[in-house]
Design a protein that fits this description.
The radius of gyration is 22 Å and the shape is globular. About 35% of the residues lie in helices and about 30% in strands. It is built from 11 helices and 21 strands. The chain has about 400 residues and is an alpha/beta fold. It starts with a strand and ends in a 6-residue tail after the last helix. The protein folds into 2 domains: about 5-75 and about 100-180 and about 275-350, FAD/NAD(P)-binding domain; about 185-275 and about 355-390, 2-Layer Sandwich (D-Amino Acid Oxidase, Chain A, domain 2). The protein has an 8-stranded mixed beta sheet. It has a 6-stranded mixed beta sheet with strand order 9-3-2-13-20-19. It has a 4-stranded mixed beta sheet with strand order 1-12-11-10, with no helix packed on it. The structure holds P-hydroxybenzoic acid.
């Protein structure tokens, strides 16, 4: 087979939020990169994904020259509601920490990033296959991939950035004796739906109930996203629309008479819940970022935001590396990024365990959880921790 040769400074595997943002930040520093992605552009832009952006993520998007519509088309959320015992308790982010979050779905972020990279003549290859990493523990690493027309390219580089998510190839390029995987699964999943309906509330509602957790979120003024805790093996096809609405309504019901606005359900699926961290985040010249290095359960809305925080640290490390050729810049990346990763792991785990009902839970466990939620919502100190973590810790300088 004919193999063409190419060269760049940073080969980026994966055109998700991490890979595309990294490529943009590097370009702004005059560092050349090439992004390769197995999915097609249409698929990436058309898959409706979650989107709670921390203040720092919005600041990064708007201040780094990305042509983003987040401020024009996103919705600012100045709080969330925690619902338990059939009543809502608002956590007011603006009052508690002077920060907020934005509802702006991930695929909209991706559209903005792709358009910006293309208008800056960034090299992006969609629809590639057979991505392989080679010689990542040398000073001359390379990756290889096959494009849509069957042509194979060998891309030599200085650095490989593994931004290809939890089922990508990058994390598998670490030798077994180097990789330490920290993993936890949860005995429940999330049954998620998209429905054609108006919003049921102005902000997100995280509900704890005897029947388990539920989350009321939104995508657009006419499309709503809702979830309820379920068995991880639950078969979505077993659930009629009426049964889904009944389950959701029961979990949010309460003395205040709150109920959800129902509509046609046009997408449903079960999402597993897990926590995962790969350490170290670097092997030689291969550095992982985003979901390739860690997974959080979705309860804290941290996944996308952690990916953005990683690449911000990574872009700075690479700027230092290319300016000096000193490995100490690469050495600093993982430990700096991991500090935030573990704080977010704790927050996501804490939100998950506070709000979900364990399959074996008894009356004690349920009352204890109510006690915790009561302490949190009736204390300014307790609420402030949630507000601080949810809106996001400041990005490291
Ligand atoms: C979502 O809108 O899909 C969403 C929002 C908040 C979360 C998780 C998912 O914590």
């Amino acid at each position: 087979m004919h193999i063409s040769d190419s060269r760049t400074q940073v080969a980026i595997i994966g055109a998700g939020p991490a890979g595309l943002t990294l490529s943009h930040l590097l370009a702004a520093q005059g560092i050349d990169s090439v992004v390769v992605e197995t999915r097609e552009r249409d698929e990436i832009e058309g898959t409706i994904r979650a989107g709670i952006l921390e203040q720092g993520t919005v600041d990064l998007l708007t201040s780094s020259g990305i042509d983003t519509r987040v401020l024009a088309e996103g919705t600012r959320h100045e709080g969330v509601e925690l619902r338990f015992d059939g009543r809502g308790h608002r956590i007011d982010f603006t009052d508690l920490v002077g920060r907020s979050v934005w509802l702006y779905p991930q695929h909209e972020v991706l559209k903005d990033l792709i358009a910006t990279r293309l208008s800056d003549n960034g090299r992006l290859h969609f629809g590639v296959s057979d991505v392989a990493l080679d010689k990542v523990d040398t000073a001359e690493p390379e990756i290889a991939f096959t494009d849509r027309d069957g042509n194979r390219t060998r891309l030599r580089c200085d650095i490989v950035a593994g931004c290809d998510g939890s089922s990508g190839v990058s994390r598998n390029a670490f030798p077994e004796d180097v990789a330490q995987d920290h993993f936890r699964s949860y005995p429940f999943g999330w049954f998620g739906i998209l429905t054609e309906a108006p919003p049921s509330a102005p902000e997100l509602i995280y509900t704890h109930s005897e029947r388990g957790f539920a989350l009321i979120s939104s995508r657009t003024p006419t499309v709503q996203r809702m979830y309820f805790q379920c068995d991880p093996q639950e078969a979505p096809a077993d659930w009629s629309d009426a049964r889904i609405w009944d389950e959701l309504q029961t979990r949010v019901a309460g003395e205040d008479g709150f109920s959800l606005k129902e509509g046609r359900i046009f997408q449903r699926g079960v999402i597993p819940m897990r926590s995962y961290v790969r350490a170290p985040m670097r092997h030689g010249r291969l550095l992982l970022a985003g979901d390739a290095a860690h997974t959080v359960p979705p309860t804290g809305a941290k996944g996308l935001n952690l990916a953005m925080a990683d690449v911000r640290v990574l872009a700075q490390a690479l700027e230092g590396f290319f300016a000096t050729r000193e490995d100490r810049h690469l050495d600093a990346y993982g430990p700096t990024a991991l500090r935030r990763v573990w704080r977010a792991q704790h927050f996501s785990y804490w939100m998950t365990s506070m709000l979900h009902t364990d399959p074996g839970a008894g009356a004690f466990d349920l009352q204890r959880q109510r006690g915790e939620l009561d302490s949190l919502t009736s204390s300014r100190a307790g609420s402030t921790y949630l507000a601080e973590a949810y809106t996001g810790w400041p990005l490291s300088p």
